Each structure stands twice: as C-alpha cells, then as structure tokens.
Amino acid sequence: MVEQAELLSALIGEIYDAALDPSLWTAVVGRAGRFVGGLGATLFSDDVVGRSGNVYCESDGIPDTFWQLYFDKYAKFDPATTGRFLAGLEQPFATAVLLPHDEFLETRLHEEWAHPQGSVDFVTALIEKSSTRATFFGVFRHERDGVADNEMRRRMQLVVPHIRRAVLVGKLIDRRQAEAATLADTLDGLSAGMCLVDAEGRIVHANAACQAILDARDFLSVNGGRLVASDAGADQTLRELFAAAGGGDTAIGIQGSALALTASDGESYSARLLPLASGARRRACIGNTAVAALFVYKASMAIPSATEIVARHFKLTPAELRVLLATVEVGGVPKVSEALGIADSTVRTHLGNLFEKTGTGSQADLVKIVAGFSTPLLG
Known about the structure:
There is one protein chain. The chain is of the alpha+beta class. It has 3 domains: 174 residues, 2-Layer Sandwich (Beta-Lactamase), CATH 3.30.450.80; 115 residues, Beta-Lactamase, CATH 3.30.450.20; 67 residues, Arc Repressor Mutant, subunit A (Orthogonal Bundle), CATH 1.10.10.10. It contains 18 helices and 12 strands. Strand 1 and strand 2 form a beta hairpin. The longest helix is centred in the middle third of the chain and has 26 residues.
C-alpha cells in the first residue's frame, strides 16, 4: 500500500504538469493506464456517432496504427459508445457492464480489432460533456487480466478526478490564449482563493478570491508582507510548509499538503499547498520567486451548475430557462412545445425574451451560449 501511495503521488503531480505542458499528456496517460491495471490507455474526445479528436494514447505492445484504426474505423461499431455518454461524471464504465462478455466476443469490434491485440475490456470515465461531445479517459484491459474488476475501478476513481481537473485547467488556458508564463488572468478567474508564495511566505501573486479573503483579515491575513494564519498552530504549519516547498516536490510531496482552517464564524475552510518546483509548474508560475501555490476554499463549497450560472447571468425566469434548455436538447419550436407541453406561441414568446436578454438572434446562438458555460473549472 505504501508503494501504491507513492506511485499515485508521483502520478498526480505529472497529471497537473500535463495541464500546463500538453506534450506530456501521452506519457502521462500511459502511466495512468498502467497504474489502473490496463494494457494501454487513452484520453480522447468523442461524439455520439464515434468520431474522435484530440487523442492521446500510450500502450505496452500495441502499435500506434491500432489506436488510429479504432478511431478511424471501429469506434462507430463500439456497442459502448452511447453508454459512455450516459455514464456519470468520473464514474468508471466498462464494456462488460453494457453487454454480456460472450456477446461482446461476437461483435465486429472484438473480432477485427480487440482480439488481435489482446484486449478483452475497455473501461472509460467521463471527464466532461456537452450536448453532442464528450471527453473520456479510457483504459484497455488485456485478456490475461480478464474483464475489469473492483480493484481496477477503485484505481480509476483515484486518478480520474485529477485527470478531469487537469483537462479543464488546460482548456481554460487555451480558451484564453494565455502563455504558460503569464497565467495571472486565468488564476484570477478561479472561484477558489489562490496565492503564490515564496519560501518565506511572502505573497508573489494573489487572485481576486484570495485577496477578498485576506482583506477580511479573519483566518488568513497579511502581516509585514507575509501570509499568516490567525491560529498559531496553523500559522506555524504554514511557515514550515512554505520553507519545505523551497526544497522542491520531495520535501512535501508532489501533490502537496492540506490544512484545515476555521473562520471566526465557525465556517470551515481547506487550504492546499502545491509545490511549484516540478517542471512545467515552476515554468508557469508568475515571477521566479514563488515556490508554492496555496489554494483556499470553503470545505463545503457548493459550486453552481452551468444551468444555474446561465440563469443568473442573464436573469432568466424559470420558464425561460426551461425553454432555453429544451431548445438545446431537442431543437425547434414544435419539438420544444411538445416536450414541455405548452403552445407553440408560448415557446415563441419565451424565445423572444431569451433573444433580448442574451443579445442573440437565433436558436443556434442560444445553443452556443449554453455550450460556452458547459465547461467551467470545477471540482
């Protein structure tokens, strides 16, 4: 168990490095697949008819041509394609769950693609999803190991949340077209408080959420330019962690260290310190004196859904929101009318209000707006 924990710790650090340096994804995906217990692994985007893009794959003993052959030809024959889209976020989904193994053995996918390279099962986990497209982390299981078991699912659940966060961070950076060396705008967009500190605890950069926490001068504040905790024990721990972070990843662990903090009103907060000495992470920090990033968030933080964000942002009524979501899911006025059980004229009235509130002029524009809110930095 100690060895497994060490492997997981190193893997988590590499996953977050890949968020800042996409060239690392292929190797990281391969290591994650081996940790889970698979023959090979892949991080890929897929749509409901099996067309894929942004594929990162690595495997032991499987030629690269086999991977490309799957996505070019056989993905559309995969009986699990639809099932993957319906699976829960971050929940392992095995082909063997969808249909009996003996039936899978008779499929064209198995006979022409899986069997020649020794694959007997494919376990995926949903990373993110829009109305028509999704991103998955998938691991191929070799026939010598049998179909996915509980241990494989357990290990998947250990690594998938970190892969998901890293993918979302990477997409957020790409969407804002920010260079890795100048991430201030991206960091300011995080809902959690985040500050970069040097080995003495001096703040190099604090995002807007963190600055609000510091300005309140409650459980965290700035004294003489140094970040301090109001609780003496917590403050001593922070001092030691900051100093240790100056020594690199090995000093406090690649995945960092967590600390519980309590506000004066009794509200519980969590603080996690992530060392910046590891490769891409250090290159991406602002300035060259920061040794760690401290993330601070409520222990019970409730992150609003994309639906809630859209409704709040455009001040939509419940009825308008229902029509908006139905438009995204089923399409035009007649289908929305049928789905919601309301008259066509009522749907058109709500659509008119939606166009006015969102500054759009077509249903296609409404779909684009919802899609734009569908992949915020969560988790």
